[in-house]
Amino acid sequence: MTEPQPTPTGPVPYREAYARLSRIAAELESGEADLDRVLPLLEEAREAYAQCRARIEAVRGVLTGDWAGDGASDGADTDPEDDSGAE
């Protein structure tokens, strides 16, 4: 059996986080994980899942046009039909 991996301190590539989830799932499904090891494995899986989900949400945001931090806050994204300040 392998020991839980240390928690990375920075962004983890999606592929690496997904691989961690796959490894943990395989170990838990095999039934060979010692009971004392289950809680650390679940915590590691929770962290890897959160990293995967954050990456997926970031991509989803880009695909739907939500470009956080791209400088769009300079007024370029205002409604052209909004003439509230035109009077």
From TrEMBL:
InterPro entries per UniProt: Exonuc_VII_S, Exonuc_VII_ssu_sf
Residue numbers spanned by region Disordered: 64-87
4Fe-4S found in the keyword field: no
One Gene Ontology MF term: exodeoxyribonuclease VII activity
SUPFAM superfamilies: XseB-like
Annotated keywords: Cytoplasm, Exonuclease, Hydrolase, Nuclease
Top-level lineage group: Bacteria
EC number(s) given by UniProt: 3.1.11.6
Enzymatic class: hydrolase
Protein name: Exodeoxyribonuclease VII small subunit
Family to which this protein belongs: Belongs to the XseB family.
GO BP term, pick one: DNA catabolic process
NCBIfam families assigned to the protein according to its UniProt record, in alphabetical order: xseB, xseB_Acin_var
GO cellular component, one term: exodeoxyribonuclease VII complex
Biased composition (Low complexity): 65-75
